[in-house]
């Protein structure tokens, strides 16, 4: 699972008010290089919640994103490459996601988070 | 890429080995899948460079088609772990990237509308009433640009009404009518192959971005 997917996933348990972002527990991270597409990144920037992306990438062992970012940084090639790497090239292969409100653990195996709910959580 | 090329690539995708009837698992054939995504890309520019999600992705045929046509990111959602395992090996075999999430589409916890385009071949709702509507409702909530979906032609009026009135679609248009070959997968199928008329729909979700400006 890429951090782009992580950036849109939130806890879907009944009664949870703010289930975003899910906290990441890392057992294994893999990196898979993909083509760099600056136009896509510029377009995505406004849709991404920055702080959760910074925290998630740090948890995954990549600490090169600035704490805060604004649209003016999109002119920097260096910034875009870091953004690209964090958003699209880091994959959580094994580990878990934690709901920030309930601490419910959603396991991630072979890169696939299991977000299926138990009967009493729907 | 030519339509024929896309269709033949998709023909290499491995389909369900033990389809589950309660989930109405029917493979999306390469003929339909290639036409669906080819239209989305070439007539509307909804695929290349976009964030695409495939709801009820099964073995990942539609998501694969999106990735092959240049989607920047594809996420496939399915409730069945066995299907996702096949989808995952398909992605490896055809060398495309697709994030997979094990989740019930009706309980999808997604923040806002990060996804541009949703493609799906939902259950027709014949085994469990309303299953098709759960998919449509979720899709129109989470796509910002367009939703492409297949529904039985016999339900056309109902789909249009529900999409526009209940799920906030700005527009709902049938792009074409296709023949869906349902092979004899299940014991209750009496004939060898059944030909079902299905509509390929394009829905445009109402813009939710007014507040951002």
From TrEMBL, chain A:
Gene3D superfamilies from the UniProt entry? 2.20.25.10
To which species is this protein native?
Answer: Cucumis sativus (Cucumber)
Question: GO BP, one example?
Answer: maturation of SSU-rRNA
Name listed for the protein in its UniProt record? Uncharacterized protein
Q: What PANTHER family does the annotation carry?
A: MULTIFUNCTIONAL METHYLTRANSFERASE SUBUNIT TRM112-LIKE PROTEIN, UPF0315 PROTEIN-RELATED
What does the subunit comment say? Interacts with TRM9.
Instruction: Identify a single GO molecular function assigned to this protein.
Output: tRNA methyltransferase activator activity
Pfam families from the UniProt entry = Trm112p (PF03966)
Q: What domain of life?
A: Eukaryota
InterPro entries per the record? Trm112, Trm112-like
Query: Member of which family?
Result: Belongs to the TRM112 family.
* GO cellular component terms, A-Z: cytoplasm; nucleus; tRNA (m2G10) methyltransferase complex
TrEMBL record, chain B:
**Domain Methyltransferase small positions:** 48-140
| Family annotation (InterPro entries) | DNA_methylase_N6_adenine_CS, rRNA_MeTrfase/Polyamine_Synth, SAM-dependent_MTases_sf, Small_mtfrase_dom
Q: Which GO terms describe its biological process?
A: rRNA methylation
* GO cellular component assignments: cytoplasm; nucleus
The cross-references to PROSITE patterns, in alphabetical order and at most eight, read:
N6_MTASE
Q: Which Gene3D superfamilies match?
A: Vaccinia Virus protein VP39
Q: Spell out the molecular function terms from Gene Ontology.
A: nucleic acid binding; rRNA (adenine-N6-)-methyltransferase activity
**SUPFAM superfamilies assigned:** S-adenosyl-L-methionine-dependent methyltransferases
List the PANTHER family. Answer: RRNA N6-ADENOSINE-METHYLTRANSFERASE METTL5
State the similarity comment. Answer: Belongs to the methyltransferase superfamily. PrmA family.
- Official protein name in the record: Methyltransferase-like protein 5
Q: Which organism is it from?
A: Cucumis sativus (Cucumber)
């Amino acid at each position: 699972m890429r951090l782009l997917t992580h950036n849109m996933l939130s806890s879907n348990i009944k009664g949870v008010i703010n289930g975003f972002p899910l906290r990441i527990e890392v057992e294994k991270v893999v990196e898979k290089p993909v083509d760099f597409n600056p136009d896509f990144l510029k377009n995505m920037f406004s849709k991404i919640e920055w702080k959760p992306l910074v925290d998630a990438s740090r948890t995954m062992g990549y600490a090169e994103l600035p704490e805060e970012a604004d649209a003016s940084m999109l002119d920097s090639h260096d910034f875009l490459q870091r953004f690209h790497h964090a958003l699209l090239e880091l994959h959580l292969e094994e580990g878990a996601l934690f709901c920030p409100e309930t601490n419910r653990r959603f396991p991630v195996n072979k890169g696939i988070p299991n977000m299926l709910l138990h009967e009493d959580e729907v | 890429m030519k339509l024929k090329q896309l269709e033949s690539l998709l023909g290499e995708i491995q389909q369900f080995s033990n389809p589950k009837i309660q989930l109405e698992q029917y493979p999306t054939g390469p003929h339909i899948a290639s036409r669906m995504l080819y239209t989305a890309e070439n007539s509307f520019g909804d695929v290349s460079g976009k964030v695409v999600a495939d709801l009820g992705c099964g073995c990942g045929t539609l998501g694969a088609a999106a990735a092959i046509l240049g989607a920047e990111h594809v996420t496939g959602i399915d409730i069945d772990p066995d299907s996702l395992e096949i989808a995952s090996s398909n992605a490896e075999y055809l060398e495309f990237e697709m994030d997979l999430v094990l989740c019930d589409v009706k309980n999808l916890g997604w923040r806002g509308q990060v996804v541009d385009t949703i493609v799906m071949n939902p259950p027709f709702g014949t085994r469990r009433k309303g299953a098709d509507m759960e998919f449509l409702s979720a899709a129109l909530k989470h796509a910002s640009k367009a939703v492409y979906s297949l529904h039985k032609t016999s339900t056309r009026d109902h789909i249009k009404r529900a999409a526009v009135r209940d799920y906030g679609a700005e527009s709902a248009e049938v792009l074409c009518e296709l023949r869906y070959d349902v092979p004899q997968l299940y014991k209750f199928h009496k004939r060898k192959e059944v030909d079902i008329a299905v509509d390929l729909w394009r829905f445009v979700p109402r813009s939710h971005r007014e507040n951002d400006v």
